[in-house]
Design brief:
- With 131 residues, the protein is an alpha+beta fold.
- The protein has one domain.
- 43% of the residues lie in helices and 18% in strands.
- It is built from five helices and five strands, in the order αβαβααββαβ.
- A five-stranded mixed β-sheet has the order 1-2-5-3-4, with helices on both faces.
- Helix 4 packs across helix 5.
- The protein is globular and about 40 Å long.
C-alpha cells in the first residue's frame, strides 16, 4: 500500500511542478509592472496549491491602509483595480510564496485578497516546493 501511495504522490507531483522560468513567465503575462521574484533561484520548483490567507507571511503592517497612509497612490490604484477584479469574479494570477508561506511575489495581490476575503479564505498560490 505504501508503494502505491508513493507512486501516486510522485505522479501528481510530476504533473504539477512548475520551473522558476515558467513561473516568471506566468507572473509577467499581461503585467506591465512585472519584476523579479524575491529569493528565487533558477533551480527552484513551484506548484499551484491553496493556502489560508491568515497563514501567509507578509511584511508587518502591510495593508491597504498602510499604502493610503504613506500616500503611495500608484500602489493604492493597483490594489483598487485588483479589488474590482475580485468583485467582478475575474481570475487573478496567484501570488508566489516560499515553503514557509512567506510572500516572494505579489504583495498587492495579497493585500487585495486579505482586504476582500479577510483571513479564513483558502486561496490559490504558487508555492516553492523544492524536492
Amino acid at each position: 500500500m505504501d508503494k502505491i501511495r508513493k507512486l501516486v504522490r510522485e505522479t501528481v507531483e510530476s504533473y504539477s511542478k512548475i520551473s522558476a522560468d515558467e513561473l516568471q513567465k506566468i507572473q509577467c503575462a499581461g503585467n506591465p509592472s512585472c519584476d523579479i521574484i524575491f529569493d528565487m533561484n533558477d533551480s527552484d520548483v513551484f506548484t499551484l496549491t491553496q493556502v489560508r490567507i491568515k497563514d501567509i507571511v507578509a511584511p508587518k503592517g502591510l495593508s491597504l491602509q498602510f499604502y493610503k497612509q504613506k500616500e503611495l497612490d500608484e500602489d493604492v490604484s493597483i490594489i483598487a483595480r485588483l479589488l474590482k477584479a475580485l468583485g467582478d469574479h475575474e481570475n487573478i494570477t496567484p501570488f508566489v510564496v516560499d515553503e514557509n508561506n512567506k510572500i516572494m511575489d505579489g504583495l498587492h495581490r495579497f493585500v487585495a485578497y486579505k482586504y476582500y476575503y479577510k483571513d479564513n479564505r483558502m486561496i490559490d498560490v504558487y508555492k516553492r516546493v523544492n524536492f
